[in-house]
UniProtKB/TrEMBL annotation:
One Pfam family recorded for the sequence: TetR_N
Keywords noted in UniProt: DNA-binding, Transcription, Transcription regulation
DNA-binding region, residues: 25-44
HTH tetR-type domain mapped to chain residues: 2-62
Transmembrane portions of the chain: none
Gene3D superfamilies (UniProt xref): Homeodomain-like (1.10.10.60), Tetracycline Repressor, domain 2 (1.10.357.10)
Protein name, per record: TetR/AcrR family transcriptional regulator
Source species, domain of life: Bacteria
């Protein structure tokens, strides 16, 4: 690894996982990366800038791993695998995960972070398109994101021996039961699942002007909107 920036980020990430945020000092990072403090300041500004860059790199690595897995013909099962990968990241790199999700700051809104969130939204969109989503897409994404990060942070806050090994799976299945259905929307007598399914296919509907498509989307959103 010859690039100073890469060496610094790798050294900071290693110190973060071995000793927590307090271990990531410019002196320790410089020594581990083989650079002088002015190089760190020039590339990252200050310690917080360095930590933000570590978080951004963490999102990039997470996104690369998450998108390597090929999609199957079962979007719900693909979502399960995505959830499990999210929990695995938290358990494998708890200090980094805490910075990514407990204290996101600006790094949590980096292009990589937004792309990682978009992967989750794409999973939900695929479920909606098959008629198996029983709530609005935005609500489903929010529920999955909140529950996933919440249970992950709860687990990493505990010593390994005190963690409930089945907690993440139990929460995952509870959320999936709340947002998905085994039957496609066509066999569901209620209007919400049908509206969600049609909303997912809105961009593919032919014969509508842009204004008409926007109006239809607004109506479908109102049908699918949660009552509380």
């Amino acid at each position: 690894m010859t690039d100073p920036r890469d060496r610094i980020l790798a050294a900071a990430a290693s110190l973060l996982e071995s000793g927590g945020e307090e271990a990531v000092s410019t002196r320790a990072v410089g020594a581990a990366a083989g650079v002088q403090a002015p190089t760190i300041y020039r590339l990252f500004g200050d310690k917080q800038g360095l930590l933000d860059a570590v978080v951004t790199r963490g999102f990039e690595d997470y996104l690369a791993d998450k998108t390597q897995r090929a999609e199957t013909d079962d979007p719900v099962e693909d979502l399960r695998h995505g959830w499990d990968a999210h929990i695995a990241l938290a358990l494998d790199r708890p200090a980094l995960y805490a910075l990514m999700y407990a204290r996101p700051r600006e790094a949590g809104h980096s292009p990589a972070a937004r792309a990682a969130f978009a992967v989750l939204a794409a999973h939900v969109r695929r479920i909606a398109a098959t008629g198996r989503l029983r709530v609005a897409e935005d609500r489903a994404v929010a529920m999955l994101h909140g529950a996933g990060s919440g249970v992950a942070l709860s687990l990493v806050a505990l010593p390994p021996g005190e963690r409930d090994p089945g907690l993440a799976t139990a929460v995952r299945e509870s959320v999936l039961a709340a947002i998905t259905t085994d039957a496609p929307a066509g066999s569901d007598p209620g209007p919400v699942a049908a509206a969600v399914t049609l909303r997912a296919a809105l961009d593919d509907l032919a014969g509508f002007t842009g204004a008409e498509r926007a109006l239809l989307g607004e109506w479908l959103d109102r049908v699918a909107a949660p009552s509380s």
